[in-house]
Amino acid sequence: MEAVRGMAYVPGIGRGALTRRARPGTILLTDQTTLLDVRARPGGCLLVNGAPFSHATIALLSRGIPTVILGADQTERLCDGIEVTIDGATGWVLPADVAAPALTPTPPPAPTPVLTQDGCHVELRASARDVTGVGQARDRGAAAVGLVRTEFLLPDGDTVPDAVFYRASFRAICEAAAPLPVTLRLLDLAPDKHPAWANALPRGNTLGRQGVRLFDHPLIRQVVLAQLEAIANLCGEFPVQILVPYLTNVEEFLRWRAMIDERLSGKAVAVGAMIETPAASMLVDRLARVADFVAIGTNDLMQCFYGADRDDPAVAAYLNPYSPALYRFLRTLAQQADHHIDRVQLCGVLSQLPGTLQVLLGLGYRAFSVDAVHLPYLATTVGEASYAACRELAAEVCAATTSGVVSRLLGVPEFIPTNANADLPLDSS
Q1: N or C, which end of the chain has less CB nearby within 10 Å?
Q2: What superfamily does domain 114-410 belong to in CATH?
Q3: Secondary structure of 80-110 as H, E, C letters
Q4: Domain ranges across the chain
């Protein structure tokens, strides 16, 4: 077979026969529509026409399955049963007998501290959805657990989670992370993050009721209060913080912070604001004044920014991580944050994609919460970079006219997923 290069997504080496059904020791060839049904853990995954910012695809990051995203035209010669090797750090799909030196070695855990060549300190934190992910984050050198996705903590039997459940779950997470600080994001439901216990709720749609917008619903409020009761029980024993999801304005944050402070009965727990909409982004300086820290959720933020559902592969081409417009927007956000930038954390897939971390560093961001599997690789990237060069690169990216120019500046393949609506214009730069 001929070597093929796609988008590097989950680093690691996978070897095995191509198959359409996930089995250990094989390389799964699948598309977005069947990804949620994958239960077994394959040796690697080739995702055809995948939406890299969708919740289903992000699950591959959480599971640490080496993954490359390919266009449909790149898979025409990839037949079931052929033996391949995939390098999830570079995006290469190679013949099975490729020599080891041609593959990306697994770096050691991130050092403490993580520094650029010219001494700029970068905080690499971890995002996780369970105890296993938290333990992996600690073992791979995370500076902190920057985001726990508490909506994925589920009791047995599809029952509504209560304070007893969360006390046990949060304690297990804090113990697995110790001595690292842990940020617990309050319940963040969305149309495709809809556990069985919440079936009484309407699923809604993209840009509808999600995150904090659901906190007034009696069932959701009951669960959020249970989470706060559990946090109040643990905060004297572990270094925990709280993150309020999917905010739109300052008033919204102040309202829910008052409720949180009341429920915690004066206990000293930092409360952060999660920015995931352009409106909240333009208030980052105001939010930073009333919140103890700010987290920018780039997955949902890009969805709002581009006006394209991140879970729909048909519009995946519009959520282009190499568009100069995106970096101009993020530059404005960093400038708005000004001297508060040291309390701003970037979350989401964006900083984990090839070439983007250096640009984000050049824009002024210093703290990133990423999936544990990426930590050693990103630490290596930081260690090989200089802040001065990153600033120059960021300026060039923001001055570019097309995503094709940005891709060439970063030395990565162009981001052109197949669009199901062939009559719609794509960025062909």
Answers
A1: N
A2: Phosphoenolpyruvate-binding domains (3.20.20.60)
A3: CCCEEEEECCCCEEEECCCCHHHCCCCCCCC
A4: 4-102, 114-410
CB-based contact 396:411 (threshold 8 Å) = no
How far apart CA 109 and CA 66 sit, in angstroms, is: 18
pLDDT in tens, 269-301: 999 999 999 999 999 999 999 999 999 999 999
pLDDT in tens, 165-181: 999 999 999 999 999 99
Where does residue 97 rank: exposed (0-12), middle (13-18), buried (19+ CB within 10 A)?
Answer: exposed
With CA atoms as reference, report the closest residue to 50 among 417, 355, 302, 307: 417
- Candidate from 138-142, 208-212, 254-258, 366-370 with smallest mean pLDDT: 208-212
- Cβ atoms 5, 413 nearer than 8 A: yes
**CA-CA distance, 385 to 21, in Å (whole number)?**
40
* CATH match of 4-102 with 3.50.30.10: yes
pLDDT exceeds cutoff 80 at 427: no
SS3 299: helix
Q: pLDDT at position 230, please?
A: 97
